[in-house]
Amino acid sequence: MPDYKWYAVQSKPGQAERAEQELRNQGFEVFLPLITVEKLQRGKRVEKIEPLFPGYLFIELSELASNWRPIRSTRGVARILTFGDKPAIVPDDVIELLRDSLKHAADQPSLEPNQTVRIASGPFNNLNAVFVEYDGEKRAFLMLELLGQWQRLSLPLNAINPG
Q1: Lower Cβ count inside 10 Å, N or C end of the chain?
Q2: Which domain of life does the protein's organism represent (predicted)?
Q3: What confidence tens digit (pLDDT) does each residue in 56-112 have?
């Protein structure tokens, strides 16, 4: 059985999805990590799906059994990343970690403004709060009633449970 390894492929600007599809059409095993990001467009927040590493994707190849020649002439592909004159190998555990992280991120429920949440850790553990908005990718602004007054605080998303 040939020894397959993962390699990083640089795509042409803005063509990572095209490179992925073209490589798949040729029968290659390809991994393009995608994430959902919130962006402002014309003053409104919209969710967009973008590559985690803009301009890069991963391909699984065997040094002996795979035909590497068509890769560099594939639409959307700029080149295979190299270390010196050898293609740079991406360890299998890095690919698995990326896949697991993206799966876990997709499993996390999205929060809506004014939604009641429960704080799951830290000094405010087990207190209810109201979600206001996201504070970057990993934090959220909450309103918490303390001593009869509402306080605005920012907590990590992993410290918050919906409802």
Answers
A1: N
A2: Bacteria
A3: 999 999 998 899 999 989 999 999 999 999 999 999 999 999 998 887 666 566 788
CA–CA separation, 142 and 46 (whole Å): 21
Same domain, 117 and 65: no
Long-range residue pairs from 70-73, CB within 8 A, at least 24 positions apart, any chain: 70/26, 71/9, 71/23, 71/28
- Domain containing 23 equals 4-101
Q: What is the pLDDT of residues 122-157, one digit of tens each?
A: 888 889 999 998 877 678 899 999 888 899 999 888
